[in-house]
Amino acid sequence: MRGINTFEIAENGQVGEMRGINTFEIAENGQVGEMRGINTFEIAENGQVGEMRGINTFEIAENGQVGEMRGINTFEIAENGQVGEMRGINTFEITGNRQIGEREV
């Protein structure tokens, strides 16, 4: 773990590598891969989270898998589903029980 003001909380799971400034990572009962960013928040419950790069990017995954997400002020909420790659500025994505591929804005 490398970083400045980096917080890492892992419960019953594995956490890989995390680099960042003011980066928060919470993993419960899941695996977390690599996360780079500034003011990036990542919450994973009972799922796997891949790589996330961004500034002020929020990612919430419940009971699902989240791939890669790049963006500025991008919000992603996935419940019981899979989310692929999402790039955008001020892009909002809400998924419930379905799959989403790639979307560029």
DSSP helix count? 0
User: How far is the N terminus from the C terminus?
Assistant: 32 Å
Low-confidence stretches: none
Question: What do we call the CATH topology?
Answer: UDP N-Acetylglucosamine Acyltransferase, domain 1
Overall pLDDT score: 68
Query: Could you name the CATH class?
Result: Mainly Beta
Coarse shape: globular
Helix content bin: under 10%
> How many strand segments?
18
Please list the strands of the largest sheet in the order they lie side by side: 1-4-7-10-13-16-18
Provide the CATH architecture.
Answer: 3 Solenoid
Q: Structural class of the helices, strands and pairings?
A: mainly beta
Number of domains: 1
The percentage of residues in β strands lies in over 45%
Largest sheet: 7 strands, parallel
- SSE order: EEEEEEEEEEEEEEEEEE
| Gyration radius, rounded | 13 Å
